[in-house]
């Protein structure tokens, strides 16, 4: 049996209940650690579930910043330095990743707090997370202010990518499951995945086939 | 062993390879069916993996439209009528859902093609997918043109929600896994999930606990 929630019922929810509810409705989300430095070289690490693909040509990735303090160090560092890393979260590090959402002072690095290792390589200006299996470096391109709810979209271009060799498909597909990348739902629920199938490119009047 | 891809290596990929590769990097994504009608009442159904949460107060959801033909019916209908439904995909309907990505003519309804049932209820102006366990109705609020890659972001407000009663948590959390909602990666890979844990709200100097 489905329960129906009218607009009024949603608006009458207690604030934190609505946050859980609406966050869940969006479905499963990517969840990654975003690594930055400030102008003085102080590292910062934050967990984000608002990262999404917007196009492959050019290779762009976007994320949403909410108007809340813990995300502000990351945003400030991106705007100051122009660079950041995105690091997939796996089953071994999701608790440490979750802990980065606590409101630490700006002079504290979440790398130190969690014990996750900053990894600087190939002269990229932001730290990767050594324990992450899929890592990529991004250059800031554009900020779009979303006035309807005071959030900020940041768009960046993917400049460097590190992927385990055994997770790379011939057609460019990356087997995230094999890389132990996890997904999240709502504010705080973490999930591993079990592949059902990969399906062929859909065309009218053509049967789908498995390409897994 | 990780393989390193420089910016040049990424740009030198064959176009379709880069599409798979960059799409995969974004991590696991929500995947849903978007139901609309045009001014004449002709139904349309399309699969989207670019839907994301942007805020709970007001209750907003966004999605990205790429500049490709199959998505155009959905976008036109949203702008014409102002309403659409978002319907979570489960293990029983993901092949039918995938088939909606084929380029059918505008006068063909993907409901008819796939056999998925349109469900009109509570006077909402767009059709839900009867086979979907989590459904919600959305009102168009704002269009933002993203000039950097010629995509369009559409923001809507959540007006009605239908969720199985046994998937509702006391704190507002919706158990997507119990509702059989699935996730996707890349362009064509579908996955069910296995919950690792729900973690308590993170605070400095406080141990995380399981709230699953």
From TrEMBL, chains A, B:
The keyword Glycosyltransferase does not apply. SUPFAM superfamilies: FMN-binding split barrel. Pfam families: Flavin_Reduct. The keyword Flavoprotein applies. Its cofactor is FMN. Keywords: Flavoprotein, FMN. It comes from the Bacteria. One of its GO terms (molecular function) is oxidoreductase activity, acting on the CH-NH group of donors, NAD or NADP as acceptor. Residues 31-166 form the Flavin reductase like domain. Belongs to the flavoredoxin family. This is Flavin oxidoreductase.
């Amino acid at each position: 049996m489905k329960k129906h929630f009218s607009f009024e019922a949603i608006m009458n929810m207690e604030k934190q209940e609505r946050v859980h509810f609406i966050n869940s409705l969006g479905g499963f989300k990517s969840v990654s650690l975003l690594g930055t430095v400030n102008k003085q070289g102080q590292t910062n690490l934050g967990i984000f579930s608002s990262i999404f693909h917007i196009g492959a040509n050019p290779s762009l990735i976007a994320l949403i910043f909410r108007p809340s303090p813990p995300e502000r160090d990351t945003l400030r560092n991106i705007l100051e330095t122009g660079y950041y890393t995105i690091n997939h979260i796996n089953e071994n590090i999701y608790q440490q990743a979750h802990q980065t959402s606590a409101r630490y002072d700006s002079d504290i690095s979440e790398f130190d707090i969690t014990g996750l290792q900053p990894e600087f390589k190939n002269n990229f200006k932001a730290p990767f997370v050594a324990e992450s299996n899929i890592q990529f470096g991004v250059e800031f391109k554009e900020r779009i202010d979303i006035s309807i709810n005071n959030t900020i979209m940041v768009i960046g271009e993917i400049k460097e990518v590190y992927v385990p060799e055994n997770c790379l498909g011939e057609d460019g597909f990356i087997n995230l499951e094999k890389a132990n990348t996890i997904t999240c739902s709502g504010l705080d629920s973490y999930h591993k995945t079990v592949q059902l199938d990969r399906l062929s490119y859909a065309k009218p009047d053509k049967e789908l086939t498995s390409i897994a």
